[in-house]
Amino acid sequence: IYLTFDDGPGPYTGKLLNILDEYDVKATFFVINKSSNLDYLIKQEHNEGHTVALHSYTHNYKTIYSSSQAYFDDLNKISNKVKSIIGIESKIIRFPGGASNTVSRNYSKGIMTYLTNEVVARGYHYFDWNVGSGDAGGSNTKEEVYRSVVNGLNPNRANVVLMHDFENNYYTLNALEDIIRYGKENGYQFLNI
Ligand code: ZN
Predict the structure, then answer these.
(1) Exposure on the CB side of residue 188, measured as CA atoms within 13 A
(2) Is the predicted pLDDT of residue 44 greater than 90, yes or no?
(3) What's this model's pTM, rounded to 2 decimal places?
């Protein structure tokens, strides 16, 4: 199971890191640009053995998917920010909305086909997910987050779980321990990308 957290760091990322540490679980954080007051959390993610990966600087679909130039300008900004905090360049990315999102075509038709090839040509590895938590809409309690994740797991494949550590998303924080316990009790191993 690859636990992935998008759109952070946020106010509760520190608590989330404590839970991961308690269970000795490594995860992957696809970060965006937030207040510099939260930079220390990106540093902490890295120092505690998690993977700091790139999501977007602005996370503004209209801007980043208006052209490939705009996309890479945004990617370079978050890449530089992460590098300035953890000292290494991350080549692991997740497209806002995922690699096959349909939002982008409103701003530039066919851009995902171009970008998914171009990021690979530039040395990046992009990752989507195959297990949803519903925590960006759909799941409104910690039980719903838990059920969505557990029901989505399949023992015969690598499971990449999409979650978010943005503001006020306490459903995921409060479901995390139960998800980890379920995974460990059912023979899964937790890995970072
Ligand atoms: Zn996102």
Answers:
(1) 23
(2) yes
(3) 0.97
